[in-house]
Write a structure and sequence with these properties.
Strands 1-2-3-4-5-7-6 form a seven-stranded mixed sheet, with helices on both faces. Helix 1 packs across helix 2. The protein is globular. The chain is of the alpha+beta class. The relative contact order is 0.15. The chain is built from five helices and seven strands, in the order βααββαβαβαββ.
Length: about 190
Amino acid sequence: MHLTIRPAQQDDAAVVPEIMLQAMEDIIFRFIQKEDKKEAIRFLTDLFQQTGNLYSHENTFVAVDPEGNVMGSLTGYNGDHFIALRQPILELIQKQYSNDLIPEPETTGQEFYIDSVAVSTAARGQGLGTELLKHAIKHAKNQGFKQIGLLVDLDNPNAKKLYERLGFTLGNKMPFVGGEYYHMYIQFV
């Protein structure tokens, strides 16, 4: 399958939030305080279409097939901007869902942080997640970051193996929204 990876556009919102939700369903359900996929997609769609937040189209790359169908996405950003990018989400979950949750920081900064990577069910098992991660690594290097990082769920050993194959090193264990994760990273020379 030949795919092109490009920056997301606002009109990719028709499909990207549903793909993104696969990568962070439990977390989004905690934000909206219910296990409702339609509501979770609406929540992510609103944020994806806006600017200046963690889940914005401006922080997302998409993989598109020759017909223009989005088959996967990767959302990442400058970790130094995490607190500012998280604030609109905290305000939205408080205003819309009366949720005062303030999750632990996912990144301590000083890195390009990969927030989520997800592949549509139609494209799974074809190496698309790997290609999106390689794209993010190249992007981080080209932007002058000294490090790229992400969190991996302790209960997801297959993802951990994938990240290790790509050169990520296992870092500290850390809690996040009720789960336990490892911070994994690649330092650039």
